[in-house]
From TrEMBL:
Belongs to the histone H1/H5 family. HCT subfamily. It holds the Pfam family Hc1. Might have a role analogous to that of eukaryotic histone proteins. This is Histone H1. It comes from the Bacteria. GO terms for molecular function: DNA binding; structural constituent of chromatin.
Length: 58
């Protein structure tokens, strides 16, 4: 559950940059959004693996 909380924090943290990129055309904010999305992808994969391992351990 700790990683899931971290995932939510990461999404909340990138929201301002996403707004700057999509609504203001700020290119640097777009770069930060792309990096955050890559981090989210990795964290989501870790969560998927944990869920699968826990499910299969039963």
């Amino acid at each position: 559950m700790e990683k899931f909380s971290k995932l939510k924090e990461l999404i909340a943290g990138v929201e301002a940059d996403a707004d700057k990129f999509y609504n203001s055309g700020n290119g640097a904010a777009g770069t930060r959004v792309r990096k955050a999305m890559q981090d989210l992808k990795g964290l989501a994969q870790e969560i998927r693996s944990e869920v699968t391992d826990k499910k299969n351990a039963k």
